[in-house]
Amino acid sequence: MPDDPERSLQSLYRAVLAAWNTDDAAAFAAPFADDGQVVGFDGSEITGRASIAEQMAAIFADHATGSYVGIVRSVRPLGADAALLRAVSGVVPAGESDLKPELNAIQSLVAERRDGSWKIILYHNTPAQFHGRPELAEALTEELRGQLPPDRD
């Protein structure tokens, strides 16, 4: 019986967030295909699992990173061996207990099944600023706050 793409992609997404939250560059890169790509929040691009691990290690060594919370919005198959995950995320900056709304993002993850396992081909992180529509930014922040642990204070 074929695996469930929705569950597989959600697992990949959660692994990426968990690795970021623990400053684990190798674990962050592990779900990516050898030729996988990351487009960061600032628009920077990284190609290749090894380069992803190297760049993440540099980021984690350079400064204290915040913790992500994320909500998967949808998973859409793109054929038998490819799928798209769409999510929203927020970040609690290091040393703080609440989300910083300016860091909210819309995220996309494209994965492909290769040799029987799912690998990330593209992970894209776009700022969710909703220019001119502050009510949308506020609503997203409130929704994401629902993902924070209750003992964050």
Helix content: 25-40%
What coarse outline follows from CA principal-axis ratios?
globular
Number of strands: 6
Structural class: alpha+beta
Relevant terms:
alpha+beta, 153 residues, six-stranded mixed β-sheet, globular, 31% helix, 4 helices
Your description of this structure?
- The chain is of the alpha+beta class.
- Helices cover 31% and strands 35% of the residues.
- It has helices at 5-21, 25-29, 49-62, 134-145, and strands at residues 32-39, 45-47, 67-77, 82-92, 105-114, 117-127.
- It has a six-stranded mixed sheet with strand order 2-1-6-5-4-3.
- The termini are far apart.
- The relative contact order is 0.19.
Layout of helices and strands:
Layout: H1 5-21, H2 25-29, E1 32-39, E2 45-47, H3 49-62, E3 67-77, E4 82-92, E5 105-114, E6 117-127, H4 134-145
Parallel strand pairs: 1-6
Antiparallel strand pairs: 1-2, 3-4, 4-5, 5-6
Summarize this structure briefly.
Helices cover 31% and strands 35% of the residues. The chain has 153 residues and is of the alpha+beta class.
